[in-house]
Design brief:
The longest helix is centred in the middle third of the chain and has 14 residues. By secondary structure, the protein is of the alpha/beta class. The chain is globular, with a radius of gyration of 17 Å. It has eight helices and eleven strands. The strands form two sheets. Strands 1, 4, 5, 6, 7, 8, 9, 10 and 11 form a nine-stranded mixed β-sheet that branches. The relative contact order is 0.18.
């Protein structure tokens, strides 16, 4: 079974404009993500971007990139557009890796791929333990609640995804990590659905799947990587990458 990794990226992020091309140790964030995905050695890696500058940067760093349309509704819509442009007929799974996760653990990418294939899952994602209680009510940190506790090698189903857990018990709630793996027919199905009310209110596209009765399995990650959403995140990740 074959997996293709597509990394959606754009320069027009509202909170940190130009984010993909910000430098970490002399290399752009998007090229760091590309190199991590490549190092996982699970399949071909392509960056899908709406900006020529991102394409040029990725290619200058030895990567593969494709130009997509401006402002698709979500990152997954961009991934699906890229898949069609690439015209890949022999792919079984498509992994959507967020372009702002330069610190993601390569072994976690591998784990998700293995679990998707061995469980024949429709959609899979990653989650990590929450060690800082402030994360529960930080709306920029997405949480996932799973239906049953993690056990060794388990791949439980997601119950819900949320930004704030104020009114909920903290049972089985984890930090959701921005990576999805789609079985190819499920990706096509997901894209065919309109954005759900839940998705639009919470700004979480994964709720579209749950609202349309598509299961999402969750694998336990080794750790929480720092996603780069703000200037503070960028400065924090800069320190980490510097000493790696």
């Amino acid at each position: 079974m074959k997996t293709l990794i597509i990394i959606p990226s754009r320069l027009s992020a509202t909170r940190l404009p130009g984010k993909p091309l910000l430098k970490l140790n002399g290399r752009s964030i998007i090229s760091h993500v590309f190199k991590s995905a490549e190092s996982a050695e699970i399949g071909e890696v392509v960056v899908a971007a709406e900006d020529q500058e991102i394409l040029d940067d990725v290619k200058n760093n030895g990567g593969n990139a494709i130009l997509t349309s401006k402002n698709p509704k979500t990152g997954t819509d961009r991934v699906y557009e890229a898949l069609n442009l690439l015209n890949k007929k022999d792919v079984d799974f498509v992994m959507n890796l967020q372009g702002d996760e330069p610190d993601i653990d390569i072994n976690d990418i591998k784990t998700l791929d293995i679990k998707m294939k061995s469980n024949q899952s429709k959609i899979g994602t990653l989650a990590a333990k929450i060690h800082n209680n402030k994360m529960y009510n930080n709306e920029s940190v997405v949480k996932v609640q799973i239906k049953e506790p993690f056990k060794e090698n388990s791949f439980p189903l997601a119950e819900n995804f949320m930004r704030n857990t104020k009114d909920q018990k903290k049972n089985n709630i984890y930090h959701h990590i921005g990576i999805y793996c789609y079985e190819i027919q499920t990706l096509k199905k997901f894209i065919s659905f309109k954005q759900s009310k839940n998705e639009l209110v919470n700004k979480l596209e994964q709720l579209r799947a749950l609202d349309n009765d598509i299961n999402i399995n969750v694998a336990l990650a080794n750790r929480s990587p720092i996603g780069v959403d703000t200037k503070e995140d960028y400065l924090a990740i800069k320190k980490i990458i510097k000493y790696k």
